[in-house]
Every structure is written in structure tokens, then in C-alpha cells.
Amino acid sequence: MGLMYEALPPVSPLGTHNRHYQWPPGLSLTELHPIMNQVDGLFMESPEDPQVTSPGAHEPLAARMRPLSLSEIAGQQHILGEGKLLRRAIEADRFTSLIFYGPPGTGKTTLAWVVANSTGSRFEALNGVESNVAEIRAKIEQARTYTKLRDQSTVLFIDEIHRFNKAQQDVLLPHLERGTVRFIGATTHNPYFYVNSPLVSRSQIFQLEPLSSEDLLLLLKRALSDPERGFGNRDIEADENALQHLAEKADGDARKALSALELAILTTPGDEGTVNLDLAVAEESIQHKAVVYDSDGDQHYDTISAFIKSIRGSDPDAALYWMAKMLHAGEDPRFIARRLVISASEDIGLADSNGLRVALAAQQAFEFLGMPEGRIPLAHATVYLATAPKSNSAYAALGAAMQDVENNRTLSVPEHLRTSFRKKLAEASGADQAAMQYLYSHDYEGNFTPQAYLPEGRRYYEPTENGLEKRIKERLDFWHSQIESPGQD
Questions:
Q1: Pick the CATH number of 298-387 from 3.40.50.720, 1.20.272.10, 3.30.565.10, 3.40.50.1390
Q2: What is the pLDDT of residue 75?
Q3: Which end of the chain is least crowded, N or C, by CB within 10 Å?
């Protein structure tokens, strides 16, 4: 540590180097020496310095092409466009704690570095997988020292903040309250579920979206033309369809797109000094499209939600796409089968009761066949349900009845519907025998006779006229007319 002093002018209130420093108000020389002993070399750049600096030529293209300012950031206009909250906060240098949430390759780390650079703050980085409480406290102590000696704020960036346990996250709280550091966290998981509530409540949360193919195409072209950080000083002829292929296969991930471009250029022999990047080379450089998907996070729930809503909305093409995405990403097909069975009753319901049979048959067929053939009956059931007439009347009726039970007076079972034993007890107590008489429906024409089964005449089930439920509605209307006809009890 003492070696670093050779490049740092000695700090002395009386020495010849006093002109280089403005003596911090309220800080005595006695207080300063222990601080300098603890943070020896703090202000000198060294190989161990964790700050993000401008990348060198040996670093990957994705690192070299990191944006240096807000104007270079591709996409994310929903939070960085002119007049948007985050952009205003950065430009006015008025923010304390931020959490960036989004899939990999959307620029969370880059944006954090640009925020620090744009506001003139130091940038200190930790990782939720590798760091511990001692490292957090050390970074905070360095930030406090910088504030005292140089009046410079520090951005403490913690990648994968959701990996920190509660104790690690709680260490940050008092320092965020006092403004010792300006915290920026990054996570691929929904912070409302995976980050402690006290930390979430102290932070502004911004969701980053996957980059569009147009944004990625712009990045690729910028990398080809940039002479300092990209390949602008090399003779490269890139076909438009090759770049478009890379942009589409990267699936919104800027890091993946730039890495594939770099691999294509560095591994393609030059023709008289010219590298020709055609579609065949591009296809080899990014062979497999990795779908962004998590088995228990937002992508899991968002995709199954889109699948069910597509079935409900009678769009078989959309439903098949979302099912294909889930299967491609490794989702458990049994989970898809269960959702099909639920949808068959919830969304198709009595408009086509055969939908439930088809869904159950698909589930049983999958168990019998396994993958990959088991996906065929799942597709069969998906298309059947999406194209079937729809009715949620049974599901809605149950919800109305449940709400009635929960919120209103509980009804007693009418005397004539009670068990024989209960009727005998009632008779012994002097109850009216006529009121306890139950009319057996099969003893009457059409196997129906008007009789009250629910006090107060409540109705929950309202049939639609969709599909086969129209016939149910006609029967119910007839029965209701029999009950409501004059002269009927």
C-alpha cells in the first residue's frame, strides 16, 4: 500500500503541496492521518481498482462498445426518452436510489455506469453472488471518505441484488437514508418479490425491455463503423441480411449480438484484406437462439398468461406460439397440460363441455407418450380450446356464490331438503309437516316440478347463448317460467 504514495502528493496543511488541496472544513490534521492510513492509495488508479473505466482494445467488443453517454444508449426510450422521469433525474443530478430490472443484455450495468459518468460520481461495483457484508461496508466507508475529502458522491452499483440475503440488503438501508452512497441495483427478477421491501420502498424502480431488432441493428452498424472502439479501422463488407440475422437471433440481447459479430469478424479469413460477412457466416456465429425464460419468475408467468389469454381470445396461432416458446425454453409440459384443463372449464365451459374431455385426454396422452411426441396432443387440445365457443358462466356463477357466502348472512337449509332424521326431530318439535314435504322430481312429468331449493330466490348462474349452452338457457328459461307461473307454489 505504501507504494501508492509515490504518485500522491503528501497532504499537509503547511507543506508546499497545499495548493493542490482545499482543506476539508471541520477536519483536523489529527483526524486526517488515520483516514489516509486506512485508505492508502484510495485516489490512485491501480489494477485492483474496481471502478468501471474505459475498456481497452483487448476487451470483448461488447465491453468496448459500452455507451459513454445517454445519447449512445440504444432503446429504453420508455424511461430515457426526452422528458421521461429517469432522464430528467439524471440530467438534473437528482436521484438517490435506483433499481434496474430486466432480462440479460438490456443494458442495466451500462446504464448504471452512464448515470455515474453523467453526474460526475465515482462508480463502485459489487456483485450479489460474490460480495459480502464486509465488502459492502468497505465500499461505503470509501464513499464517506471521498465525500469528506473531495466532496464527490459515489454510485454504489450492485449487480444481481436479488442474490443478497436480507442481512446484506439491510446493511445498505441506513446509508441510503443518510445519502452516504447513491445506490443502483440491477436484477433480472421482479424486485417486488425478490428484493426486501424496505430497500424497494427507498428506491425508484425502472424496468428495462429487450432491445428491438432495429436497435440491435443500429448497435451492430455502430460497432462496424467506430474506428476507436469497434472495427471501423478494418476493411469489412457486411451484408444487410447478415446483420439482420444477428439482430433477430440475439433476441433483444445487445451483448449476444455484439459477441456474435465479433466472433464472425475475427474468425473469417480476409479476401485480400477484406472480411466479407455474409448470411452463412452470420448463421454460424449465432447458431442457437436462447429464449429468455425462467422457470419461476416473470417470464414463466407472463408467457403462461399470454398462452391462456390467447386461448380465451380465440386466437389459435398466438396460443400455439406461446406454447412453442414454453416448450423450447424447457417448461414442464405437465404444467401446460394442467393449464389446458383449467382453461377448458374456466373459459370454454358449458359452451362446449367436450373441451374438458379433450383437455383431459391430451393430459393422459402426454403421460402415455412423453416428449417429444407428447407435444402433439397438447397442440391438439390448444387449437380445439382456442377455436371452441366460449363461456365462463359456470366459473362466474361460482364466484358470485362464494362472494355471497363470504359477505352476506349464511342461509339455513330449507326444512323440506333436510335429511329424514332431521325431519323427525322437527316433527317431534311440532313443525309443520306440509312445509317439510319434499317433492321427488322423477315422479313428475318431464322429471321436473316447481320447488324452492334456495331461500330468497337468489340466482348466480346466467347462461349465455354461445355454443351448446344456448340449449341449456332454453331449458332453464322454461323451468323458471314454470316456477313463476300463477298458481304455482
A1: 1.20.272.10
A2: 87
A3: C
SS3 11: coil
Alpha-carbon torsion, ordered 444, 449, 452, 457, to 10 deg:
160
Q: What is the DSSP letter of 219?
A: H
Q: What letter does residue 72 receive in the DSSP assignment?
A: G
Interatomic CA distance for residues 278 and 282, integer angstroms:
6
Place of cell 380450446: 385
453 class by beta-carbon count within 10 Å (0-12 exposed, 13-18 middle, 19+ buried)? exposed
Q: What is the 3-state secondary structure (H, E, C) of 392-437?
A: CHHHHHHHHHHHHHHHCCCCCCCHHHCCHHHHHHHHHCCCCCHHHC
Task: Tell me phi and psi for residue 61, to 5 degrees.
Answer: -60, -40
CATH number of the domain at 413-484, please? 1.10.3710
**Contacts by residues 359-363 (CB-CB < 8 Å, ≥ 24 positions apart):** 359/385, 362/337, 363/334, 363/337, 363/338
CATH number for region 61-207: 3.40.50.300
Give, in order, the Cα–Cα distances in Å from 376 to each of 300, 314, 330, 366.
Answer: 21, 19, 16, 8
Distance CA 252, CA 416 (A): 66
Domains 61-207 and 213-285 share a fold: no
Averages of pLDDT over runs of 10 residues in the chain (489 residues) are 38 39 47 46 42 62 88 88 90 89 88 91 90 90 89 91 89 89 91 89 91 91 91 89 89 89 87 84 76 71 93 95 89 93 95 95 93 93 96 92 86 78 63 72 85 80 89 86 62
236 backbone φψ class: left, alpha, beta (φ>0; ψ -120 to 50): beta
Q: What angle do CA 216, 217, 221 make, to 5 degrees?
A: 115
Please state the pTM of the whole predicted model. 0.58
Domain boundaries, the chain: 2-37, 61-207, 213-285, 298-387, 413-484
CATH number of this structure's domain 213-285, picked from the four choices 1.10.3720.10, 1.10.8.60, 1.10.10.10, 3.40.190.10: 1.10.8.60
